[in-house]
């Protein structure tokens, strides 16, 4: 990065150009803070909009305000504040990260961008540290099986990034800078009139990074830049949108103590349409493409691995009574996984797989019940036909109390990288069987009064043919007969005037039934707490993330880390914010590296930022 103070001149120039005046505070912000907020709307659980309180499953949302509070916060750090999942990241920015949702394997969580599958096919993982959030409105975390809705991979749940749609015209720029030469800038333009809209985002991020291995003081830097563009129209009878997003950059890492580096590019193309054929019949169609290119450029044995997925999804939703609807859809996916030969003796590979899924879903909603039932038949070119089903219901016992229960099956087919046996590629086993699961859950939500709400869930997921790899087989994948993931969650939310507090505790037992041992990198004890004050003009919050001990090649100790955030809406056009991540500069271990060293999480990072909007 050129100089740490580069943003200062830009801030000053923008402030002068926009008239940096504090003559009046944002009266509309006060009004907004004191008004009753609408129920959060989610789409992931049923593929269509519904109030979160009606969903007969456990779903949580990371909202737009949280995402915008710190633009430099990466995707893994936001997810780590969810008690029901564990994030294993081998270092800081740009380093490999795995998400274990309710204790299931990292490959059991499906990641979506506006409906488009974003899991990669060369390894059983997703490059979530490389996702940019500059155009994201909210992140929805659906806990529990969702293969009926989305097919393979959704055994543990679904995490979906929902992008923004402009509601009014405007322009803004956000700048955040801080320690370790960390800097992010975002420029955005929105146009909206009479249902037509256009949106453009550009972003640049750089950091010197952190030490990531206990016995190596060297830091691992990371930088990225990208853009997102969207155009569309939203009318009562029809809607259409086209979206393109590209993010690329460079990162450092270490392998067996040696410095390495990689370049990456990920792109998403999304075209979506809605046509109201009648008052009760709606047709939705989506055409998407996701590309992930990962190129190790500084290594003794360089590698270039690419994933490309093309998807068509079309469904009809028929509201045949005022309280019921049925949805029927077809989803086609073509996935190509490629390893390009990069050195002598590297043969590379190029493999394709196609799937077609047919899904049927029924929903019912009245004052007492909200139900959802569905079935999916999916034909996988490599692994045959799978049928999965799900039944879920929420009962509103009183206006303030509801209970829900669901049962569902799910499956996951091996990705190309798990079955390829090319000599320069480790772990492949062409005899792998697809995983199959059965999950149960029961939960409740209760409002003690207008200020206090509590909620809880207990669940269990049983998986047959679990795919694992370990040193005993030379890291070659094989199937375990059975594994059981059992857990419970208990949460508390309080809001009184401008004060609020949220807390959640999750107990997770990820058990290998053959060895009676916990699966690695998943702590049993998980606790999150956030306290804050927000009147719409000023706000401050403190959050605690605490994780218990977990297992790896050796035990990984538990830890607790505290973040602090504050903002000031100086006037309707200028907002300032302050963020301190890991206030105590706690150096805690996240995973084993080798016989003598461990990966460590990022230390303290203090940043300050401004948003100028017009």
Automatic annotation (TrEMBL):
Topological type in the membrane: Multi-pass membrane protein
Cell division listed as a keyword: no
Placement of sequence motif TonB box: 40-46
Compartments where located: Cell outer membrane
Residue span(s) of domain TonB-dependent receptor plug: 52-158
InterPro entries per record: Beta-barrel_TonB (IPR000531), Beta-barrel_TonB_sf (IPR036942), Plug_dom (IPR012910), Plug_dom_sf (IPR037066), TonB-dep_rcpt-like (IPR039426), TonB_box_CS (IPR010916)
Family of the protein in this entry: Belongs to the TonB-dependent receptor family.
Entries under PANTHER family matching the protein: COLICIN I RECEPTOR-RELATED, TONB-DEPENDENT OUTER MEMBRANE RECEPTOR
Protein name as annotated: Ligand-gated channel protein
Biological source species: Acinetobacter amyesii
UniProt lineage: Bacteria, Pseudomonadati, Pseudomonadota, Gammaproteobacteria, Moraxellales
